[in-house]
Amino acid sequence: MATPFWYNAALSLIKPLYQWKIRKRALNAEQCQQECLERFGPFQAPKNRHTIWFHVVSVGETNAAQPLIEHYLRLGHAVLVTNTTKTGQARAKALFLTAAYASLFQAVYLPADQKSLVQAFYQKYQPKLLLLMETEIWPNLIDQAKHFNVPCLLINARLSEKSAQGYAKVAALTHGMLSGIDRLLAQDQATLQRYLELGMAPDKAQILGSIKFDIQAPESFIQQAEVLKQQWNLSKRQVITLASTHAPEEQKLLSALKPYLVDHPELLIIIVPRHPERFDAVFQLAQDLPLTTQRRSLGQRIEAESQVYLADSMGEMWLWYALSCVCFVGGSLNEPGGGHNILEPMALNIPTVIGPNYFNFQTIVDELIKADAILLGQEVNQVAAQLIQCVQQPEQAQRLSEHAAAIMQKNSGSLQKHIQVIDEYLAKKPAF
Questions:
Q1: H or E element, residue 156
Q2: What share of the chain is helix, strand, coil (3-state, %, to 5)?
Q3: Are 323 and 230 in contact (CB under 8 A)?
């Protein structure tokens, strides 16, 4: 089913705004030009054709797809990754643009979903399989997959009730997209049911669980954390990491935690804002409180008097988790929120606290709450108190981590199930 005229017309109208936003957030003219070329063409020359194409939106989806991508790279498959966000692309390159995979791996931005651009992208890269990660579905992207006879799978699929309501408002467009998906591999029953209600064919959808439960922390970051603990004299510091934070979470949490920082100089806050364009603003917040703050981007180390360390870098989240006693995962205190991946710190046995707005991970968090494996704060002061409680009561924090590890183990195995399905499509003759 071809995408409707109104959709393509609307994209043409908002294209100048999209380009303006890219220029506004770019750090320099060279970066702006490169991003515009990747999103609007002419596109980068492909390193390889007939690739396995993973489309992952941002950091969370890239991390979730990591074991799948690594599996196929190890087998010698060429992999193309497209991202929507700058942080997602930086994460993909940090993980896979290494000496071991340099000839097999390429990461570029997803082109704007205009029909002519998407057609040109397929013609240039000629993928043999398109794997959409979690929730990222675009009408022309899926429509042209069908046109070029490229199998399209929605993997590790999740869909919140709020997102489902949004898709239902454009039912004809949504039904057309879902009809172009060859297989939908859902994380849970709630997601599957929402997609079925939106028009997904039951014989093309199944529940395989979440790949996120199979996540493992890269050994390199664990080793780097051990080195930094020695170099920065952190053995007697108690580190609280505020991860993937949004406005106004940083201001509220730093204000709530300031009295503890003043009374307990052994405490240290590592703060990792979700979006790099906010790094300077978060630094200014810490300065205004005032809290003694160092910045990763300036090559500064954590000093004895440091109260806050601003981790204004990309692709190092595992490192900050590995230095932590406890963490808060952001996007859950802000409005509307939705939350970010809580399983990454849990993979490192780090006790985890979140706010009440976690609908992006509803099923996973609900199971963790039931098992007493995560702490949920309804407002900022409760979250701050829970973070301090984990620092001051290590036995309780240990129990929380043990319960989380049990849930992780119970739900593992989705990765291998996904590989079995993907391999079915890889065995078929390439479209190009």
A1: strand 152-157
A2: 50, 15, 35
A3: no
SS (H, E, C) 172-230: HHHHHHHHCCCEEEECCHHHHHHHHHHCCCHHHEEECCCHHHHCCCCHHHHHHHHHHHH
H/E run at residue 80: strand 79-83
d(CA 289, CA 258): 8
The H or E element spanning position 90 is helix 86-96
Sign of CA dihedral 205, 206, 207, 208: negative
Sign of the torsion formed by the C-alpha atoms of 179, 158, 140 and 79? negative
Mark whether 367 is an active-site residue. no
- What global pTM score does this model have? 0.84
d(CA 381, CA 377): 8
Tens digit of each residue's pLDDT (9 = 90 or more) over 382-413: 999 999 999 999 999 999 999 999 999 999 99
Question: In whole angstroms, what is the distance from residue 90 CA to residue 94 CA?
Answer: 6
Residue 397, CA distances (Å) to 289, 349, 403, 426 in order: 29, 10, 10, 44
Half-sphere exposure of residue 60, counting CA atoms within 13 Å on the CB side?
A: 22
Backbone φ and ψ of 184, nearest 5°: -115, 120
H helix or E strand, kind and range, residue 238? strand 238-245
Kindly give the pairing relationship between strand 238-245 and strand 205-207: unpaired
Query: What is the edge-to-edge ordering of all strands in the sheet holding 52-55?
Result: 105-109, 79-83, 52-55, 129-133, 152-157, 183-186, 205-207
For residue 270, which of 381, 348, 171, 387 has the smallest C-alpha distance? 387
What residues are paired with 272 via a beta bridge? 243
Cα–Cα dist 181/344, whole Å: 29
- Phi and psi at 371, nearest 5°, equal -90, 10
Confidence band, pLDDT 50/70/90 cuts, at residue 321: very high
Q: Give how far the C-alpha of residue 73 lies from the chain's centroid of Cα atoms, to the nearest Å.
A: 20
Q: Which of 38, 61, 136, 250 is catalytic?
A: 61
pLDDT in tens, 168-210: 999 989 999 999 999 999 999 999 999 999 999 999 999 999 9
Contact criterion met (CB below 8 Å) for 108 and 38: yes
